[in-house]
């Protein structure tokens, strides 16, 4: 069987090295919408077609995120290449099979690395791994455990390869020293960076939002626009958040919801969470630009916002009123007063935030949300203005927990100051 495909026309030329390199490790960090995940999917299909001995193991920290990300992306690429009749897609187990040869793509999560090491191919060898969203990986030891298990004799000319793709949210992550720092990185590594300039399928609105981010939030733009390593000092929520895969139904606590309104340059952010003691489990919502009030109401309803109170930005009374006319009757404005935003942020630091992968925008914001600096370069106790929309929505959601009196009234300035002092902040 002979299949003729021109992969070079499918991706930007900066990705050509994915198909030509024989390096043991390919580490690709990228900005938002750089096209790296789609390029990775093309790489998976290419190597299956090109090397009959090759099987892939696609790994993410959380297995539950695979079906709607890596699996779906590879399926899209197969369709774009006109190869639907040659591949079989199954969801239980989550696998892709190249029908003519029986080669497979296996999908696994890092919840139990030892289970991954036992995966064996029916035809050929597992000699490729794709570590997508590798920034989510918990520790280097687990990564090494899996890598060291990928071994065995290949046909003459065969080679092993591990593709690692991620957004570089913090310069402290071990990915930096292992694959990018010249003094410490492993041997036989191809590492490079791509940005939205390497994706020719973006519309003008998205490109405009990237340019706007450079002006409004340089810290986040370092990662999201330029693909550089995020800064690790001065984070408002330093050490207080992590991404986790959890079942919200298994957590007992107080359900809260909040929304921060946006439109063109700023997204509308809606969050759902559970408060359990000093732990907050954030597990749902949406994060979208350009939402008019009626479609916003539909999204709120689809995300479970028809029952319960939703605390919203009080600066948009008209939006709140229109949401109520569209059936979102539980939406209500938060109280505001002198220094209320700073006080709210201080109070939020009393919690540990467990962020579900479905609430990824909150994780990204907390990874780049820093304090302002004075003219001497010292950090002030005032957060930077910028992309903190999911953070604001979560702060609003906490309104009845942190700044509401027993009679339901909003605390005055002195009461809020005292509330913050009482928790030692």
Automatic annotation (TrEMBL):
Coiled coil: none annotated. Residues 260-399 form the Phage terminase large subunit C-terminal domain. InterPro entries: P-loop_NTPase, Phage_terminase_lsu, Terminase_L_C, Terminase_L_N, Viral_DNA_packaging_terminase. Residues 26-227 form the Phage terminase large subunit N-terminal domain. Pfam families: Terminase_3 (PF04466), Terminase_3C (PF17288). PANTHER family: PBSX PHAGE TERMINASE LARGE SUBUNIT (PTHR39184:SF1), PTHR39184. This is Phage terminase large subunit (XtmB). The lineage of its organism: Bacteria, Bacillati, Bacillota, Bacilli, Lactobacillales.
